[in-house]
Amino acid sequence: MNLRNITLVCISLFPILLKAQDGISFDDDFNLWNIQKGQTTTIFVEKAYIRSGPGLSSKRVDSLSHGATVSIASDPIKGDIIKNFYAPWYQISYFKHGELKQGFIWLGLLALGKQVDKEGFQYLFGFDRFIKQGNDEEPAYFLTKLKVLNTKDSLIASQSYKFAFAGQLSAQSKLLSGMGLDNVKQILRMEFLSGACGVPTEYNYMAWTGQKLINLPSRYSVSDASFFYYDEKILFPSEHKRNNQLIYKYIEEGEAKDDDTLDPDYRISKREEHFQWDGNKFKKHALLK
Description:
By secondary structure, this protein is mainly beta. It folds into 2 domains: 33-111, SH3 type barrels; 113-284. Helix content is 8%, strand content 48%. The protein is globular, with a radius of gyration of 21 Å. Mean pLDDT is 89; it is low at 1-22.
C-alpha cells in the first residue's frame, strides 16, 4: 500500500474511530469483537447471565461459565453500560445439558480471542472492566485479562494487564511456542489492530509456564500517513539465536523532513532494548550509550 492509499484509509475510517473513541463506548456495528451473525464465540467471564431479552431489565433465564461456546443468532441490538463501558446485546443459541437453548447476552461478556493448545487447554482473553481515571497522568484503561482453562473448562490461571483503548478496530490472539525461553511452555500474543493513521497497533505477550502466567515485554507500532512513524519489533531466543535468555526489542522512528506527502524523506533514528529472562520473570538491561 502506497502513502496515497494510506491517507485515503485514514480519511475513510475517521467517522468509525470517532464513534469508537467515545470514552467508554463501542459502536454497535464496528468494535473490537467484530462478531457477525452466524459465528460462534466463547464466554469469557466466570458467570455470564443469559436474559429473555436484550437489556438489563429483561429476566435472567440461564447462566454460562467461561469456556462455553455460543452461536450468534442476530445482528447487534442497542446495548447497555456494564463494567463501565457500553456495548451492544446479541441473541444467541447454545447447547446446555444436551438441550438447544436461546437467549440474549451482552457483548462485553464474550472473549476477544481464544486459542487452544495440543493438550486441549483454552487461552481466553477479554476485558474485565473499564477503569476510569481522573487526570492525564493516569489515563483511563481497560483491565484486560488472560485466562487458562483446562479440558473441563476449569480456571487454572489468570493474569491481567492494562490496555488504553485508542480507536483500534479489531482484536485477536495467536498461540506461540515457548520461543526458546526456559520454563515456558507457550506464549500467547494478544493483538489490538488498527490500520488507521495515528492509532497504534499493540501486541501484548504473556508466557505460560504450565503453572502461572507472566507478562512479557509488549510492543506497538503507529504512523500518521507521511508525517511520522514509530515501529517496535520483538525477537525471542528462537528467532535471534544469540543469547538464549535475552528478549530483544528493536525500535525505529521516522519523522518527515519535508511536506512531500507522496514521497517523503524521513529522518530516521534506531535504538534497542534488551530484557533478561530468568525462567520466572524478565528484567530490562541498562544499555551503554
